Amino acid sequence: MSNNFDLAILGGGPGGYAAAIRAAQLGARVGLIEQEKVGGTCLNRGCIPTKALIACTNFYERMQKAESLGLSAQNISIDFTKVVARKNEVVAKLVKGLAGLIEKNGIELIKGKGTVLGPDKIEVEKSDGSKLSVVSCKLILATGSHPATLPGVAHDGKKFICSDEALDLASPPSRLDIIGGGVIGLHFAMIYSSLGTAVTIYEAQPEILPGVDDEIVAMTRRLLKRKKVEVKTGTFFNPKETGDVSLICVGRTPNLAGLETLKLKLDGKRVWVNEKMETSLPGIYAVGDLVSLKQFAHVGYEQGMIAAENALGGNRTYNYDCVPYGIYTQPEIAGVGLTEKEARATQPHIKTGKFPFGALGIAQAMGEIEGFVKFVADKNGKILGVHIIGPEATALIGMATLAIKNNLSIEQFGATFQAHPSYPEGMQEAAEAALARALHINN
Ligand code: FAD
């Protein structure tokens, strides 16, 4: 098999494999170079394994509250070894499915560590030490990121761990210090506090969850307190006072190894790209955590597809205006667009509408009454942001993203009626609340 391609892609995570599939759909001969398993951080060490663990711990918690639904459930217990084994099965199944998808699309998967030798040439070192030369007209870099380290703290994988190891502990520690109150830290706080671990979150900034709506953060703090998770904000972690295990979650650093010869323009620690995902070198594109201001799998997908299309003659652009996020706390958190604080900072007159899930029939019926939906709109009613804490928040945010992407107004959103009884009614009601005409609350 020849190793000459129209497009070579370095890294088989969400950014890289989305680029490969889109390029193959467009008829290109594509080589995808991956040193580990396809799916990258998202599938193997990130989005999916955390959610597989959270599915079990959330279910466990709900079972403990079964009495509130009139059920009697005694001696509920959780077998952590089985929970981790199930998580591994879910990951393995998805990795296998993705590998099949890559093959069906006619993409050449080249297993090994790639080093870029020049704009059109990559050397791939296979696991047996042999080397392979890949030549390609165009190149997309999608090497992703790795956990950032904390100065003065030596990551040893046992006492001081990162998110990779936190997914595979032999048993829940009795005490876990989590350094970093961002999204990843919060995911692990939820998982391990549900398992009885005494969790403390250390956050050097004045507040946890940067970029999240203030009222949602305040409610999250109350929920964490109820789960006996201690949150120490404005506090630097002292490694000498560590408990059983300390989990460092202080961000992720782009993977630049193997790209050195290109001498690409950087933006801080990230590779610089323009809105077409082009790097400073012609014919070389970069996507995902390697470049992104927002390190999400869905950002990687979108940037990967845009880069592939542009590398093959397209002219698409990317911007960060409408990127949703989801946090799988219990209840979930999700948001898209400007927060109320961000909107107020840029414009004097805004409209906000808030609707509590407790006023919603379906929420009462399901016993999931905590949280609210908040709409933020400009003075003309154009939706600027939507922020949710509550049941199915990560699913509900999809309709808000669609609305913002298409410049819809609160009037239009409110006029799009929803099935009854359903959680989307809470979205409609919050949009109507911004117009002081929600049905099931006093406006
Ligand atoms: P990666 O997924 O990191 O993939 C890069 C790939 O490139 C890797 O497979 C790597 O092995 C390969 N590679 C690197 N260098 C080379 C080389 N020289 N040669 C060959 N191969 C190479 N995002 C969400 O949107 N939702 C979530 O719920 C979510 N949860 C997360 C939870 C955790 C614990 C973590 C750590 C992350 C989470 N993320 C989540 C973030 C998400 O995983 C990343 O944003 C996403 O994986 C980035 O995709 P990528 O393709 O840019 O990079």
Low-confidence parts = none
Radius of gyration, in angstroms, nearest whole number = 23 Å
The count of strands amounts to 21
Report the biggest beta sheet as strand number plus sense, adding barrel if it closes: 7 strands, mixed
- The secondary-structure class comes to alpha/beta
Apparent shape: globular
Separation, N- and C-terminal Cα atoms? 68 Å
Average pLDDT rating: 96
Bound molecules: flavin-adenine dinucleotide
Share of helical residues: 25-40%
Proportion of β residues?
Answer: 15-25%
What can you see in these coordinates?
The protein is built from 13 helices and 21 strands. Helix 3 runs parallel beside helix 6 (183-194). The longest helix is centred in the first third of the chain and has 25 residues, at 80-104. The N and C termini lie far apart (68 Å). The mean pLDDT is 96. It has helices at residues 14-25, 40-45, 47-64, 80-104, 163-166, 183-194, 214-226, 297-311, 340-346, 361-366, 393-405, 410-415, 424-433; strands spanning 4-10, 30-34, 108-111, 113-118, 121-125, 131-141, 145-147, 160-161, 175-179, 198-203, 230-233, 245-248, 252-254, 266-267, 270-271, 284-286, 325-327, 332-337, 350-356, 372-378, 383-390. Helix content is 33%, strand content 23%. The strands form 5 sheets. Strands 1, 2, 3, 4, 5, 6 and 16 form a 7-stranded mixed sheet that branches. Strand 9 (175-179), helix 6 and strand 10 (198-203) form a beta-alpha-beta unit. The chain has 443 residues and is of the alpha/beta class. It binds flavin-adenine dinucleotide. Flavin-adenine dinucleotide binds at residues 10-16, 33-36, 40-42, 45-47, 50, 113-114, 142-145, 163, 184, 255, 258, 288-290, 295-298, 300. Flavin-adenine dinucleotide binds next to helix 1, strand 2, helix 2, helix 3 and strand 4.
